[in-house]
Every structure is written in C-alpha cells, then in structure tokens.
Amino acid sequence: MKARVLARAPVEILYELARDTEEFKKYAPAIKEIKVLQRSEDGNFVQVEWTAHANFFGAARTLTWVQNDEWDNKNLVCRFCLCRSNDMKKLAGEWEFKTHPKGTEMIFSVNFQVHHPLMTPLIHRILDQIMRKNNEAMLNGLKKKAEQEFWTEW
Questions:
Q1: Which of 4, 57, 69, 139 has the least C-beta neighbours within 10 A?
Q2: Does the pLDDT of residue 2 top 90, yes or no?
Q3: Rounded distance, CA 153 to CA 26, Å?
C-alpha cells in the first residue's frame, strides 16, 4: 500500500513535523492512542505503541502493535518495522520526503498483514482501504499544518 501527497512547504519542515509522532492521532481517524516507549537521545530511533480502531462488517476491532522507527536525516526517510503485536503478523515500510518543484512530495509505503483466524482476501482488502485512508489523512494533516504555518514564509 502506498500513499502520496504533495505539500507546498519546504522538505525540511515536513520532515521535522513528521518526527513528532504523538501528533499523528490528530490526523488519522482510526488511531486512538500513541505511546512513545523509547526514544534515542538524538530522536533518530523511536519505539512506539499504536492503538487503532477499525469497523468492518458492523464489528469494531482494536489493533495494538509496537513498531520501531528509524529516522535517516541524511536521506530524509523513516523506515519502520513491527517489533511486536498480537494482531499483526507483518508491518514494514518507509516514509520518504522528496523535494518537488512545487514543494515536497511525501510518499508513505507500508506492507502489513493482520493475524486473524478468519482472515480472507475480502477482509484484507477492507483493512488495506482503512490503512490507506488513515495514511492519506495523516499525510494531508501534515500538509495542512505545514502549509498553514509556513506558507507565508516560503
């Protein structure tokens, strides 16, 4: 699953805003709780516990997982992977910030698999849509914040 958003703001600003993990729940509707469990002194390693709620087929489901984020300041990318979860079998991806003639392109790529005894291709597609919707909302939230706060300066 890949989400892309173009923002009219400098790449350095968006990259720094994205490093503020605790703010993500303001942008992604399914994210209900974010706990930073560990952060390196330089902030380039962050271990985060996420709690998300999803509704499908009229049933509410809560997913909780811990992921490790590695921020690469030189290449302006965050690589993340699953540390532990009762719900997910796999979670890995990266978040890239690229200079674009009109500002910054944010590209969020994730590969995930939820562990559930009744998992079917249909349910996986629904979860993929929920993941896409939330990732796009997160990227658009960062875009809006950056453009509102920094557009006049840029």
A1: 57
A2: yes
A3: 24
